[in-house]
Fold:
Amino acid sequence: VATIDPRLGRELTAIVGEAHCLLEPELTAPYCTDWTGRFRGKTTGVVRPADTAEVAAVLTACGRVGQPVVPQGGNTGLVGGGVPRDGELVLSLRRLHSLAEPDGEAGVLQAGAGTTLAAAQAAAAAAGFELGIDLAARDSATLGGMVATNAGGIHVLRHGPMRARLAGVEAVSADGQIVRRMDGLVKDNVGYDLTGLLVGSEGTLAVVTEVLLRLVPTPERRITALVGLAGATEHEGQPGVAAAVTVTAALRRHLPGLEAAELILPAGMELVCRHAGLPRPPAPEAAAWLVIEVADSRDPTEEMAAALEHPLVLDAAVADSEGPRSRLWAYRERHTEAISSLGVPHKLDVAFPLGRLAAFAAALEVELARAAPPESHLICFGHVGDGNLHVNLVGPAPEDTRLDDLVLRLTLAHGGSISAEHGIGQAKRAWLHQARSAADVAWMQRVKGAFDPDGLLNPGVLFDRST
Ligand SMILES: Cc1cc2nc3c(=O)[nH]c(=O)nc-3n(C[C@H](O)[C@H](O)[C@H](O)COP(=O)(O)OP(=O)(O)OC[C@H]3O[C@@H](n4cnc5c(N)ncnc54)[C@H](O)[C@@H]3O)c2cc1C
Structure:
């Protein structure tokens, strides 16, 4: 337990009201452990401001006494970036959930940073639009958290990550200054792109309070398929992954409306079917499965059927209405909870040029067979269209990072990125210097120093505390 400076406690209570300044450990506990259960820390308290002015007042008060702050949205981040470590104050943004009517003419939606993805999706849908971004944590993940992590998800293949979806932002700096860039101009080259800079900054530069999102029209038709694949044994690398890469490349060529291509491997399929009680998938003995989704203004069924006439495709289940489509998505989307049912997972989120993904997956299996304790589990799945593999290890103790290091070393050796979409957080902080050049890290530290000279915003995330 960390105790708060009594004067600061009184000041914060005056700003947000007693009901939203939580200082008792039993009230603050849920904010101190991350979604995986791997990262836990202690806090001096949790404040829950209602609007931008309150956020600015809280940060100004904290700045005056040098109280470090961790911004937190839905707390679904997977790298320990949104939970306190050693007495930081948690600034929960969940009450900033204002949601404007979508602007159909400009094709944008304005929302508070604490709005959940699902709420924003529902508002857009009511006006005939979509956000072009989706992920399984949609009911809890907030738009501010998604900006801060540059979230990706299942539709990056077609619409890009959060960076591509963001048309404007409002944010508050560590010293309480508010910057608004919410005009949504397509062309606006006045100075540095501060909006872009905040995307993926993991709460270390400023606190996002409002966002303007680009919308896409809701497509007339959408089809989902769960496709079982034979192993591509003539290719280099892990046969299931190689098959998924080959088939995805073919689907991309032939299906302009391809929105998602998600990879499932046998260990994950067996686990998710058991955990979630799902029926056997098509081609139960497949080397891999793809969940693919195609959306278009006209019926893409025939086009999809033709594209699936591929020698590596064994069988497919296809759905074109809401209920059956979500039943197919369950095989992929329930992976995260199924993995957590085995124990506290180590989650490594890595990305490669497509041509190297299968070779990495093969090397990973060999190296882990040698190094991992026999009772541990390796479950890989991911956004194969983006070259993004989620490597999940269950077995090693939460603080034992030896296998994490092995995976990340192998990733760099195969020319990959150690963080595809989850960020660095505290989980991969020690790896930043391996993944970026000394000059690159020095530039990032200069940016950090310019935004937050006293190091009060999310210390210990991205960089070591001392830097
Ligand atoms: C089941 C499941 C599936 C997932 N699938 C995906 C996926 O497909 N793709 C993907 O990219 N991620 C995925 N994630 C990870 C997670 O949902 C995303 O990282 C999401 O963007 C986090 O949003 P959040 O509101 O929960 O942020 P939090 O977890 O609360 O915070 C994450 C980071 O953002 C910072 N932050 C939060 N809010 C703000 C703010 N308003 N201003 C400044 N900084 C802020 C925090 O300090 C922290 O560093 C998944 C997670 C789960 C549990």
About this structure: The radius of gyration is 22 Å. The chain has a mean pLDDT of 96. The longest helix spans residues 354-371. Residues 35, 70-78, 81-82, 93, 113, 135-137, 140-142, 144-146, 148-149, 151-153, 202-203, 207-208, 336, 421-422, 458, 461 surround flavin-adenine dinucleotide (CB under 6 Å).
